[in-house]
Amino acid sequence: MDGPSPVVPDSQWEALLAMYNLRADVQQHIAAAEESATLAARHPEDRFLQIFTARTAYYLAHRLKDSAARRTTALRGVDAASRALQADPADYDARYWHALTTFRAREAEGIAAALKGAGVARDYMTSMLRDAPDRFEAYMLLGVLYRELPPLISFGDKKKAMAHLEEGARLAPHDPEMLLELAAGYRKVGRKREARATYQKVIDESTAPPYGEWEAEDARQYARKMLNKILF
Question: Is residue 180 in some structural domain?
Answer without folding.
Answer: no
